[in-house]
Design a protein that fits this description.
Number of helices of chain B: 0
Radius of gyration of chain A: 14 Å
Strand content of chain B: over 45%
Helix content of chain B: under 10%
Order of helices and strands of chain A: EEEEEEEEEEE
Distance between the termini of chain B: 41 Å
Largest sheet of chain B: 6 strands, mixed
Helix content of chain A: under 10%
Shape of chain B: globular
Order of helices and strands of chain B: EEEEEEEEEEEE
Distance between the termini of chain A: 37 Å
Strand content of chain A: over 45%
Structural class of chain B: mainly beta
Radius of gyration of chain B: 13 Å
Number of strands of chain B: 12
Shape of chain A: globular
Oligomer: heterodimer
Amino acid sequence: GAVVSQHPSWVICKSGTSVKIECRSLDFQATTMFWYRQFPKQSLMLMATSNEGSKATYEQGVEKDKFLINHASLTLSTLTVTSAHPEDSSFYICSAARTGFLTYEQYFGPGTRLTVT
Amino acid sequence: GDSVTQMEGPVTLSEEAFLTINCTYTATGYPSLFWYVQYPGEGLQLLLKATKADDKGSNKGFEATYRKETTSFHLEKGSVQVSDSAVYFCALSEDAGNNRKLIWGLGTSLAVNP
């Protein structure tokens, strides 16, 4: 159990367009989901924490108007990269938190490769 | 601030060789330490964790011991298999016992040849 999917797995878009990436928890409900960004040969950078039914919390330096996050249900969070530019090209990874009595675990999606031309 | 440093890859080994991937950390408090693995085309998976000094995490033949005196959490496996080829990430969390807010290392790519 505890599977998280992302769609699409890769996407190429033109500069100036917007791209939406979906993150789904397939077999559990997640009140909290996280969005990470990974540059080549660099570690994962947390971009924002997405809470179901409320606004996302963005990490310092992440433009909230650029990276729109919506967590409309307990199994789905979306990240929209607006007016994408080549410097937005990266690997985007989401995770979903499954909580229980005294337990907390993040489960990760396989990532989405975004290339902006 | 907190940080994680792990050895650069790629690491290439022959099947049944001994594996060590070094990981050291800096933290202001008493973090929990994690190793994650990412197989090709899959999401990050928790491999093992340790929540306090001298704890040993183990899973699938991999082990790592939380060494507070050397601020290290090196990953070891006595005999690697081709199926262990993946990228391994060391991470820490200051959120006691869980992985609520993770600080990541750069990842170490491991290739095991038959």
